[in-house]
Amino acid sequence: MNIFLRELKAHRKSLIIWSIAIFLMIVSSVGKFTAYAETGQSMNALLSQIPSSIKAVLGMGDFDLTKVSGFYGMLYLYLLLLATVHASLLGANIISKEEQDKTTEFLLVKPVSRQKVITAKLLASLCNIIVFNIVTLIFSVVLMGKYAKGENLTGEISILMVGMFILQLMFLLIGTATAAVSRHPRSAASVATAILLVTFIISSAINMNSSLDRLKYITPFEYFKAERLLNGGGFEPVFLVLSFVIIAVLVFVTYVAYQKRDLNV
User: Fold this and answer.
1) Which of 159, 26, 180 shows the shortest CA–CA distance to 95?
2) What is the per-residue pLDDT across 188-205, written as a single tens digit (0 to 9) for each?
3) Residue 162: half-sphere exposure toward Cβ, Cα within 13 Å
4) pTM as predicted
5) Within 10 A of 11 (CB to CB), how many other CB atoms are there?
6) Long-range own/partner contacts, residues 23-28 (CB < 8 A, 24 or more apart)
7) CB contact set of 256 (below 8 Å; sequence gap of 6+)
8) Which residues contact 182 (CB under 8 A, 6 or more apart)?
9) Which long-range contacts (CB under 8 A, 24 or more apart) does 50-59 make?
10) Pairwise CA distance, residues 36 & 264, whole Å
């Protein structure tokens, strides 16, 4: 069977499960939003008493939580965390699963080069995160859109999904590069997840203490923040360039390391 199609089939069940998780998160959030909206501005008055550092860590920022766009801006942080965890685990597992399952010989006896194997796996992974992103977009627009009340919610959510996709791609490739470099394939997913959590913690620390702002370049979670994207700030060129440089480097590391490393059989 074609390696690309084989990988799509192998990760089909996982993609469905993660999509259901996104659906449930958005559904549960809709219920919370209706409660916030019914309180009117009294909710914003209450939230204004919360320290700004705590609000930043929780993803609240300066959003008006009685508006669906503001509430979705807060929700975006949690959707982003779920999406990047999925991407990093996918990247690590799709590269290392033959070594974990002791089926490396089955893969290597095929008349294809390692470069073609990596290309097929990366394309299958890319399809997975694209589907995940589109599913998140559709669920968000359909479930939250009925509360928009004249807001351009579809456009705003679409902008956020572009930022999410770039981060998904980065963490996917962090996973593939980690698995390609590691001599212990079973630990690749753990290492990739640890990198994600460390960068997320650094982002939280920056939000709590503005003096750490110079660290924002080392954590992707600071690149495409909902508060900036929704308030007209748009995508900052420096973060776009940095993202594409990181992506290019990780692709290079994945190809080179996988072709040079002795695979466990």
Assistant:
1) 180
2) 889 999 999 999 999 888
3) 10
4) 0.89
5) 19
6) 23/135, 23/139, 25/75, 25/78, 25/79, 25/82, 26/75, 26/79, 26/136, 26/139, 26/140, 26/143, 26/144, 27/143
7) none
8) 96, 188, 191
9) 53/207, 53/208, 53/209, 54/208, 56/204, 56/207, 56/208, 57/204, 57/207, 57/208, 59/226
10) 54
